[in-house]
Automatic annotation (TrEMBL):
InterPro entries: DegT/StrS_aminotransferase, PyrdxlP-dep_Trfase, PyrdxlP-dep_Trfase_major. It holds the Pfam family DegT_DnrJ_EryC1. It comes from marine sediment metagenome. One of its GO terms (biological process) is polysaccharide biosynthetic process. This is DegT/DnrJ/EryC1/StrS aminotransferase family protein. GO terms for molecular function: pyridoxal phosphate binding; transaminase activity.
Length: 94
């Protein structure tokens, strides 16, 4: 018996939008990202919104926002994905 893990629910409109982004050379950043950030900020009533390409990037930005002075010691769990600890070092913290 096959149990499906995931199925494609993208329609032609979504596939075309994805294809247009890839063809533009801006898969992560670019006009579409900026447009989405603006619309999302408006939707949630915020002045700004920032979107990133991965959980690792999100962790990095949250660390830089939370620990501003750069001389912080950050604790991470021992059982976690490697990015949890990597972003601490990459951000310049201990």
């Amino acid at each position: 018996m096959k149990i499906p893990f995931n199925r494609n629910t993208l329609g032609d409109e979504e596939i075309k939008a994805i294809s247009d982004c890839i063809k533009s050379g801006w898969v992560v950043l670019g006009d579409k990202t900026a447009e989405f950030e603006e619309k999302f900020a408006e939707y949630v009533g915020a002045k700004y919104a920032v979107f990133v390409d991965s959980g690792t990037s999100a962790l990095f930005l949250s660390l830089k926002w939370w620990f501003v002075d750069g001389d912080e010691t950050v604790s991470v769990p021992s059982l976690t994905f490697t990015s949890t600890a990597e972003v601490v070092k990459h951000a310049g913290y201990k």
